[in-house]
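>> Question from a student workshop board

For tomorrow's exercise we were told to take the sequence and the ligand below, predict the bound structure, and bring the output to class. My setup keeps failing. Could a helper post the expected result so I can at least see what it should look like? The ligand is zinc ion.
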Amino acid sequence: MPWCEECAKYYTPNSVNTDGSCPQCGEVLQLGENAEHTHDADDQETNDESAPWHFKLMVVALVVYLGWRFVQLVS
Ligand SMILES: [Zn+2]
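>> Workshop helper replied:
Here is what the output should look like for this input. Compare the format with yours to find the bug.
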């Protein structure tokens, strides 16, 4: 979120000027946090893709292990 140090205020990306400056004082706002948010979203997307894959593998391994233990108990 764009932060203006002059006004000590956060602005929504839509409320700042088109060149990224503060609508109140004209100071160019810090957009570093915005870039970090984009990065976080990318990381999240990568995790969302890889997490279920590992999770499924873990569940399959657990089911196979428990099934094997069950067969051992019965026989
Ligand atoms: Zn300002």
